Amino acid sequence: MRWLITGGCGFIGINLVRQLLQLTDHKLLIIDNLSVGSKEALRAVIDFTEGNTVNDASRCHLLVADVLNAEFALAYCKLADIVVHLAANTGVDKSVANPRQDCEINVTGTFNYLEAARQAGAKRFVFASSGAPVGEVTPPIHEEMAAHPVSPYGASKLAGEAYCSAYYRTFGLETVALRFGNIYGPGSGHKSSAVAKFLTKIITNNPIDIFGTGNQTRDFIYIDDLVKAIYLAGTVNNIGGEIFQIASNSETTVNELVDKLIQTTSQYINHDVKVNFTERRLGDVERNYSDTSKAKKLLGWNATTTLEQGLKLTAEWFIESTSSY
Predict the structure, then answer these.
(1) Alpha carbons 110 and 101: distance in angstroms, whole number
(2) Is 52:94 a contact under the CB 8 Å cutoff?
C-alpha cells in the first residue's frame, strides 16, 4: 500500500510516519509546504528523497507543495492507495483572525485532495477533523449530534466533513473523518496548543495566560493513541462514509490541566508559576469532550494513555528540549 500524507512534516504527520514505519512496509509520499513542519523533523524519523520526480525505490519521498495547488494534487494522488489529509489551518484563534484564509486552506485544500483521490481511484481518504464542528453543546459529543459551529475553524472543518460525506455517497470514494480531541505529546514544541504553551511557560518561568475563567473543559488525547486511530481509519474494512470521535472520553478543565502540569514539572524544576486570567477568546466553546464508543465498536480503537502518563512523557521531552529554563 502507498500512503500519501498531506502535512506529513507536522507534529501529527511525523508521528504517523513513525507509526507506519513500525507497523508496515508500505511506501510513504509526504506533501507539505513546510510553513509549520520541517525537513529536519522528518529526517529525524526516516531518510527520504525529495523533489517533484518521485523516486519509486524510496521508502519515503517528500514533495514541497501547498494544498491549494489543485494540479499538484491531481498529479500525485495517482501514486497513492490511501490519502491522509492532515494539512490545515489549525486552531480557533487563527480562524477568527483570518476567516478567509481558514476557509481557503481548510475547505478548498480538502476539496482539492478529495477530488484528486476520486480521480486517482484511491482506496481510502482519511480526513483530520475536530470536535469544533459540533459547537456549543452539552457533552459528551457524539457523531449523531447536529452541528452548529461557533468558530470559523469549526465551520471549515464541518465543510470538509460534508464534502467527505458527499464524495462517499455520490462517487463511492471511501472517506473517513476523524474528529480529533486536543492533541499533545513529545515533539509538539512548535504547537500553540494548551499543553505545549503552558509547558513552555512553566519551564521558562513565565506567567501562564488562561482565557476566561479556566473552567472551560477539553478532551486531551496523547499523540500515540491518535496516530493508531489514523492507521485504523486507513485500513479497517467497511467504514466508508463514517465519522469518528477520536479523544480520551474524559473531561478536564483548563485549570485542572495547569495544576497537573505544575505538579508534573515540580519533579524536575522549582518555579513559582504565576497564572493570569484574561478575557474569554472569541469562538471558544465552554465544554468539550467526546463519547468514543463508536470508534471502539467499528475501529477497535480506544485511548490507552492516561492524562497523567501522557503529561509526564510530554513534560520530560519539553524539559530536555528547552535549554533556557
Answers:
(1) 13
(2) no
Over the Cα atoms of the chain, what is R_g? 19
Q: Burial level of 259, CB count in 10 A (0-12/13-18/19+)? A: middle
Q: List the catalytic residue out of 76, 113, 153, 289.
A: 153
Task: Band the pLDDT of 323: cuts 50, 70, 90.
Answer: low
For the cut 60, the answer to whether the pLDDT of residue 306 exceeds it is: yes
User: C-alpha angle 150/154/156, rounded to 5°?
Assistant: 130
Average pLDDT over every residue of 37-56 = 95
Is residue 64 within 8 A of residue 8, CB to CB? The reply is no
Give residue for cell 513559582: 272
Whether 153 sits among the annotated catalytic residues: the reply is: yes
pLDDT digits (tens, 9 = 90+) for 223-277: 999 999 999 999 999 999 999 999 999 999 999 999 999 999 998 988 889 999 9
State how far the alpha carbon of 76 is from the alpha carbons of 69, 83, 147, in Å. 11, 10, 33
Question: What phi and psi, each to the nearest 5 degrees, are found at residue 300?
Answer: 70, 35
Which residues are paired to 176 by β-bridges? 126, 242
Grid cell 508559576 is found at 273
With 50 as the cut, is the pLDDT of residue 176 above it?
A: yes
The 3 state secondary structure assigned to the chain is: CEEEEECCCCHHHHHHHHHHHHHCCCEEEEEECCCCCCHHHHHCCCCCEECCCCCCCCCEEEEECCCCCHHHHHHHHHHCCEEEECCCCCCHHHHHHCHHHHHHHHHHHHHHHHHHHHHHCCCEEEEEEECCCCECCCCCECCCCCCECCCHHHHHHHHHHHHHHHHHHHHCCCEEEEEECEEECCCCCCCCCHHHHHHHHHHCCCCEEEECCCCCEECEEEHHHHHHHHHHHHHCCCCCCEEEEECCCCCEEHHHHHHHHHHHHCCCCCCCCCEEEECCCCCCCCCCCECCHHHHHHHCCCCCCCHHHHHHHHHHHHHHHCCCC
